[in-house]
Amino acid sequence: MKIHQRIIRTLHKFSFSERLYSNRRIAGPYLFLPLIFYTLLMTGCSNLLYYPSRQLFHPPEKYGLNPEEIFFTSKNGNKLFGWYFKSQVTNSPKAVVVFYHGNAENISTHYLNMAWISKYPYDFFIFDYQGYGRSEGDPSPEKTIQDGEAALSLIHKKNPQLPMVVYGQSLGGAIALRNSIDLKKEYPIALVVADSTFLSYKKAAQRTLARSIFTWPFQWLAYIAMSDTYAPNNEVNKISPIPLLVIHGDRDQIIDYDLGEQVYKTAEEPKEFWSIRGGGHTDIFSIQSDEYKSRFIKKLESVLSK
Asked: Which domain range does residue 31 map to?
């Protein structure tokens, strides 16, 4: 493993630690600040965004599910992997939810956020970006955008007449927003959902660095070493006239609540903001789950009936 890859793992521990340190214990880690500076420059801060795993965490069969396994190809030729869950109640679904997961682990944890929807007349597809799960390669902002494009193309070719619901959580929300901005005229996107997400990689990285006393002095590096070329930025308004649903928990400790508010404020109508009282990060369907699941199904029915 390269030295900057080892350091970034240490940086990750510092950045997301919630433990309190005494002044005596703080002195030691500050000796590593030059290494942190070097690491951020070497990696362009991208490794602050991605924490993939190859492990199979929750096999679908454990929950009585049997998704279709699909391999497909991203723009650079790397193989991607996804699971396609068919509706359990009909062979003629109303739409397919294309799910963009967050930055950690892989689809074998994230599919549980949306697998419940197959109990309704909707199909559900979730895929891994490069470097996650059984997908080849390594992630980057550019590659994840290409992976999302490949996923939308795959699903459209699978059933060209089926409306798509583009649903992105956390980091996946930024990718889903960018894909929706760029490809809204190419695919039958009925609804875009931005759950616990952000507009700017620079801002998200800066907030990550700000959470730890060890990396707080280096917040400014996020604006220098990180690129927003593939971020949604202030172009979310271009998603219109496709409806946009923004969801954010008011106690989210990973992606700050105000970043979700920025997504909503930047967008044009039709748009809707669901503020989840007491909600943390991407937990809408586990906080008062029946209520929000029912509300989401009603939202789908509303946009698909127009």
From this structure: 1-43+200-228
Indicate if 143 and 215 belong to the same structural domain. no
Q: What does residue 40 show for φ and ψ, rounded to 5 degrees?
A: -60, -40
CA distance readout (Å), 293 to 79, 119, 120, 226, 282: 33, 11, 11, 36, 13
> What is the dihedral sign for C-alpha 281, 283, 287, 291?
positive
Mean per-residue pLDDT for 215-243?
85
Could you give the percent of the chain with pLDDT greater than 90? 72
Total structural domains within the chain: 2
Q: Do 148 and 100 contact (CB within 8 A), yes or no?
A: yes
Antiparallel, parallel or unpaired: β 104-105 and 51-52? parallel
Q: pTM of the entire structure?
A: 0.86
One-letter amino acid of 156:
H
Cα 272 to Cα 1, 174, 244, 250, 269: the distances in Å are 45, 17, 6, 16, 8
Select the more confidently predicted residue: 8 or 77.
Answer: 77
Q: Above 90 in pLDDT, residue 227?
A: no
Residue 53 has pLDDT above 60, yes or no: yes
Q: Are residues 19 and 136 in the same domain?
A: no
d(CA 214, CA 17): 10
Q: Find the CATH number of the domain harbouring 289.
A: 3.40.50.1820
Which one, of 100, 96, 95, 71, lies nearest residue 83 by Cα? Answer: 71
pLDDT of amino acid 207: 80
Q: Are residues 207 and 297 in the same domain?
A: no
Q: Are 20 and 212 contacting, i.e. CB atoms less than 8 angstroms apart?
A: no
Strand, coil or helix: 285: coil
